[in-house]
Amino acid sequence: MTADVYGIIGCPVGHSMSPEIHNLAFQDLLIDAVYHRFHVEKRDLEAAVKGIRALGIKGVNVTIPHKEDVIPFLDAIDETAARMGAVNTIVNEDGRLKGYNTDGQGYIESVLPYLDKELSEISCLIIGAGGAARGIYSAMAHAETGRVDLANRTPSRAYAILESCSAPVSSKVITLDQAQCSLTDYDLIIQTTSIGMSPKEQAKPISLAGIVPGTIVSDIIYNPVKTVFLQEAEKHGCRIVSGVGMFIYQAALSFRHWTGKMPDVKAMEAVVLQKLGGSKIC
Ligand code: ATR
To answer: What is the pLDDT of residue 114?
Structure first.
């Protein structure tokens, strides 16, 4: 029997940990399949998508910089991907390519175990207004989160997210300075900018001085596992959630789209933490 082929398309993809966790899940579940990295330049995206069909590749993840640009080359996208204007998962259904987006729901799944209230009672602040923030905002809004505010260096990008979201959710846009002064308004702070990511590890988007101990502070960066932002949150007595969980859950939800089965997320997490040289931090 020939193994089914899956993979990730992006540029760069050399450091992606997706192959390790998906191949582990295929082995665990005795699924005869293999997951590869495919480096695809922007100019080659259309040809690469045609190649998925031509070669019978069963499914792919889509990463930077193709999540938005890939949409016109697909046969269909689901409602969540349409809402987000971005696709991170493609399923090849007998030659028909359908796009999904598991990023926002992946974030929610990763943070739910840390919440001691219903989402409808939570007030949260998203720092950043890029693609990652858009996905998380949309998922949190549609999950009927009590309040979801956005703080960004460029406020117009945050307003654009609010305007494009159809869910009725209490929201406002604030500046990064205002965010720093209103930390006590929030149960959950979600850091979605690239600030603090390896190799510029020493930076953070705002100071957390004055935050209420016990506030949940999460960072979607997973390399380093404990960003400087999370280190500061921990010093203030906050509960911290690293980006490893979101990475694992978005992958697990992609895997379920492809196979109908949910992989062992704990085993996936262990592989990622081992590779990053980190340990479970929360
Ligand atoms: P992604 O798709 O990964 O979210 P992105 O679309 O490039 O990436 O968005 C990056 C986010 O990080 C944006 O919110 C960006 O702020 P701007 O909209 O003002 O550009 C934020 N960001 C990146 N570098 C920053 C910096 N040095 N200071 C403040 N915000 C920064």
So the answer is: 95
| 3-state SS, residue 179 | helix
Catalytic residue among 67, 98, 204, 226: 67
Instruction: Supply the pLDDT for residue 282.
Output: 56
For the cut 80, the answer to whether the pLDDT of residue 1 exceeds it is no
The pTM of this model reads 0.94
Q: Can you list the domains of the chain with their CATH numbers?
A: 4-101+245-276 (3.40.50.10860), 105-242 (3.40.50.720)
Active site residue 67: yes
Q: What is the DSSP string of 20-81?
A: HHHHHHHHHTT--EEEEEEE--GGGHHHHHHHHHHHT--EEEE-TT-TTTTGGGSSEE-HHH
Query: 99-139: per-residue pLDDT in tens?
Result: 999 999 999 999 999 999 999 999 999 999 998 999 999 99
Nearest CA to ligand 1 atom 27: 195
Report which ligand 1 atom has the smallest distance to the Cα of 133.
4
